[in-house]
Amino acid sequence: MSLTRQQKTAVRRIEAALASIEAALPGTVLRRETRCGRANCRCHGDPPQLHGPYWWWTRRVDGKTVTKILPDDLYEDYRQAFDNHRRARALLAELEAITLQAIEADPRYSQRRTRGPTAPAKPR
Ligand SMILES: [Zn+2]
Predict the structure, then answer these.
(1) Looking at residue 114, what is its pLDDT?
(2) How far away, in angstroms, is 12 Cα from ligand 1 center?
């Protein structure tokens, strides 16, 4: 596979950005208030006084959704890793786009017959 000079420059930038990532945590984090399971707790009162807000970290583990409630200090510790994960995903998507562009420019690939609805768009 051969890349144009412009594509190589973009790949070097993506590599450098990925190399600067030290830790990454997957999933989504939401800040929200909650009710507990105790029926006589203030969170079930009128008006309800909810617990929190806390940070709810949700991710998939072996195909199942797992949630952990994080206190502010842990969230602050992990925040960079959550941001890094999003950044790494975006960088990988960029790398994929460049690579798809590169193979579409290769007649050995682009002249192959395309099947199915997920086929990549023809190059412009
Ligand atoms: Zn409660």
Answers:
(1) 86
(2) 52
